[in-house]
Amino acid sequence: MSSTSASLRKPQGAAASAGPAPVSRARTILAGSVGNAVEWFDWTIYASFAIFFSSQFFPEGNETTALLATFGIFAVGFFMRPVGGWILGIFSDRYGRKAALGLTILMMAGGSLIIALTPTYAAIGLAAPLLLTAARLLQGLSLGGEYASATTFLAEMAPPDKRGFYSSFVFFSAAVGILAASAIGWVLTSTLTKADMAAWGWRIPFFLGALGGLAGMWIRRSIPETEAFSHAKKAGVEKQPLRTLLRDHPREVLRIVGFSILTTFAFYIFVAYVPTYAIRQVHADPKTAFAANTVALIVFMLVQPLFGILSDRIGRKPQLIFFAAGYLVFFYPLMTTLGPSFGSILAVELFGLVLYAMYTSIAPAIMSEQFPTSVRAVGIGTPYNLVVALLGGTTPYLLTWLQSKGMERWFFYYVLAGAVITLITFIRMPETKGQTLK
Question: Which candidate, 191, 243, 292, 391, has a CA 20 to 30 Å from the CA of 90?
Answer without folding.
Answer: 391
